[in-house]
Amino acid sequence: MSVRGLTPLFKWGFGLRRSNYLVPLMSNNIVVSGEEAVAQHNQPTFARPKVLSHKDVIAPPPALIKEEFDSKKKRPLSEVDDNEIIQLVDEGKVLPYRLEQDLKDCSRAVNIRRKMLERTLSKEDQRAENLSLGDLPHQSYDYSKVLDACCENVIGYIPVPVGVAGPLSINGETVHIPMATTEGCLVASTHRGCKAISQSGGATSFVLSSGMTRAPVVCMPSVSRAVDLKRWIEQPLNFARISEEFNETSRFAKLKSIKVVLAGKRVYLRFSSLTGDAMGMNIVGKGVEQTLQYLLEIFPDMKVLSLSGNYCTDKKPSSVNWTEGRGRSVVADAVIKKDIVERVLKTSVDDLVELNTSKNLIGSAMAGSIGGYNAHAANIVTAIFLATGQDVAQNVESSNCITTMDRTDDGDLYISVTMPSIEVGTVGGGTFLPAQSSCLNIMKIKGPSPSTPGEHADQLAKIVCATVLAGELSLMSALAAGHLMKSHLKYNRKSSDS
After folding, report:
1. 416 contacts 332 by C-beta, under 8 angstroms
2. Least confident of 119-133, 298-312, 333-347
3. Strand pairing category for 401-407 and 372-373
4. Which among 458, 465, 443 is positioned nearest to 278, based on CA atoms?
5. For 408-459, what is each residue's pLDDT tens digit?
6. Same domain membership, residue 483 and residue 378
7. Which residues are known catalytic residues?
8. Count of domains in the chain?
9. Does one domain contain both 381 and 439?
10. CA 445, 448, 450, 454 torsion: positive or negative?
């Protein structure tokens, strides 16, 4: 076939009359450009076209490539069936953790992820019937509230029973306390403590101080430079400048102090700040980051090692939280009438006082405990944290507690608990989830305080502390009376268990 005869094919195949897109001729491996081919339309049929080597091949114009790509756009992922999506995940073309964003359907993303996990589990173990996720619920839940806030790679949710203890009279107000737990007897025991306290006139609870902490670690070239940094920060005028930088990062941030300690040339800066009704870790973290940038301008030889240097201290036992406090430092007490100790708690004042000294004080000291001078404060803290959407891992420091008991001159029981590091909030974290928000609403502290920033979080801390008081009173009474195992065997085990 001649070049003249191929001209219609150029027009049909590429929709171009003049271009540099190359066209191969079917004979002799001759390649000509479209423009040359069109030009040859008016030349004699015996004219030989120019023979081009592979070095002369011209790439298609970018605009043409884009036009061809746009014409073959993929279907939206939401229009692809589940099995195809799983195949795309297997091929690495879809990221499993982005299913919610790509599908624009959180529930469907959860369902697909469950199918993938069940398939993987069945491949790993032939007992596929025992590896089903059927007992892990996933329907009837608003996962859009979880997305980018509470959890990733979601496959369902865990229903935890919620009981209510109380009413408990705290500072003259009646409070019902929601507690989420799977430990039988815990709510019943706490409820008994609430009854004994309320019938004796109620508990008082006070926040002694407030301040969430974050302690970055920085490194200076030498000890002398580390000392220079410490002394500079501790100058009142310089602290005022730092406070301006810190406080402008949030309308709720109010820097209270910076405690500076050295370990050689490493410097630990423990920032403490008010954070309104939020637990406050993010608020403080933002303020610290901006402050570090400010300090770098003054101390360019300073090297920031980490936003957290473990001197905060978050989610770990530490003496600094026990002695300096973190979050809210709270104290609560009550006087329990002698007849109520005997009638409701089934023990005596003298037995309780002796047991508290031997167990909570001397026993904890023998164990080398840090902040563990109590019977089971962590039980109550964790149950309330789960019910109200707190950061449950912070029960480590939030459960720091010392319980004291004394006999009054009238023969009644005086009991107190001091908790220096309760870390709670009524906004942020999981507090906005419907169930957790409802539990906060039971205590009339849902969301931020409409009048005074921090008022709702303060009230939650006081409730936690007063409820720990009730829990300590009841458990210690059960131990003093020898009723602990009897109660647990009755409430904490199914009758079918041996």
Report:
1. yes
2. 119-133
3. parallel
4. 458
5. 999 999 999 999 999 999 999 999 999 999 999 999 999 999 999 999 999 9
6. yes
7. 183, 315, 391, 488
8. 4
9. yes
10. positive
**H-helix segments, 307-413:** 319-324, 338-343, 349-356, 364-366, 377-388, 395-398
If asked whether residues 66 and 83 sit together in one domain, one would say: no
Co-location of 411 and 479 in the same domain: yes
Q: How does DSSP assign 300-311, residue by residue?
A: TT-EEEES--SS
Question: CB under 8 Å, gap of 24 or more: what pairs does 342-347 form?
Answer: 344/192, 344/195, 344/196, 344/199, 345/192, 345/196, 345/473, 345/474, 345/477, 345/481, 346/477, 346/481, 346/483, 347/477, 347/480, 347/481
pLDDT of amino acid 125? 72
Residue 259 in tokens: 């405690």
3-state secondary structure 94-156: CCHHHHHHHHCCHHHHHHHHHHHHHHHHHHHCCCHHHCCCCCCCCCCCCHHHCCCCCCCCCCC
- How does the average pLDDT of the chain come out, rounded? 88
| Cα dist from 85 to 82, 88, 121, whole Å | 5, 5, 19
Domain boundary among 54, 70, 86: 70
CATH number at residue 222: 3.30.70.420
Provide the domain limits for residue 261.
216-306
**pLDDT band for position 66 (50/70/90)?**
very low
| Secondary structure class of 231 (helix, strand, coil) | helix
* Burial classification of residue 46, based on how many CB atoms lie within 10 Å of its CB (0-12 exposed, 13-18 middle, 19 or more buried): exposed
One domain for residues 358 and 386: yes
* In a domain? residue 312: no
Domain assignment present for residue 154? The answer is: no
What residues contact 69, with CB distance under 8 A and at least 6 apart? none
Q: Are residues 57 and 95 in the same domain?
A: no
Residue pair 419/331 in contact (Cβ under 8 Å)? The answer is yes
- Please, are residues 213 and 344 in contact by the beta-carbon 8 Å criterion? no
- Rounded to 5°, angle at Cα 246 from 241 and 249: 135
| CA angle (111, 113, 148) in 5-degree steps | 95
Q: Do 137 and 193 belong together in one domain?
A: no
What is the token pair recorded at 102?
Answer: 């790509």
Q: Determine how many CB atoms are found less than 10 A away from the CB of residue 283.
A: 25
| C-alpha span between 443 and 378 (Å, rounded) | 20
CA distances from 429 to 148, 373, 458 (A): 11, 29, 17
Euclidean distance between CA atoms 436 and 456, whole angstroms: 15
- Mark which of 145, 178, 201 sits at the end of a domain: 145
